[in-house]
Amino acid sequence: VARLWDDDKLRRQVEEAVQAVQQGSKRIQGKKVKTGGGGFRKVFLVISALVAFLMLNPRTGPQARRITKDIISTLRSSD
User: Fold this and answer.
1) Alpha-carbon torsion 60, 62, 65, 66, what sign?
2) How far apart are CA 21 and CA 13, in angstroms?
3) How far apart are the C-alpha atoms of 16 and 9, rounded to whole Å?
4) Which of 41, 49, 61, 71 ranks highest by number of CB atoms within 10 Å?
5) Residue 34: its pLDDT value, please?
């Protein structure tokens, strides 16, 4: 067993299998299971903060608002 456990690939596969069983058990019990996601949420927050900064900044705000207004009017006219 010690020799098998020293094999990194095998140990990683066993750990992943144990993790999958634990998550399955939690799901059966009706508990929420955290998946490794959340990347989209972080990207969305960064983009939102950047847009807010550009819109509220006194130097870039007027131009950013004008560009946004142009984009929105173009999208509405294409409907």
Assistant:
1) negative
2) 12
3) 11
4) 61
5) 74
What is the token pair recorded at 58? 């006194």
The Cα–Cα gap between 58 and 39 comes to: 31
Tokens of 66: 């004008």
Cα 77 from Cα 27, distance rounded (Å): 47
Q: Are 66 and 54 in contact (CB under 8 A)?
A: no
* Token code pair at residue 39: 């990347």
Contact in structure between 26 and 33 (CB atoms under 8 Å): yes
Q: Is 68:55 a contact under the CB 8 Å cutoff? A: yes
pLDDT (tens digit per residue) in 33-73: 777 666 787 888 888 998 888 889 899 889 989 998 998 89
Integer CA distances (angstroms), 53 to 43, 47, 57, 60, 61, in order: 15, 10, 6, 9, 8
Q: Residue 62, Cα to own-chain centre: how many angstroms?
A: 31
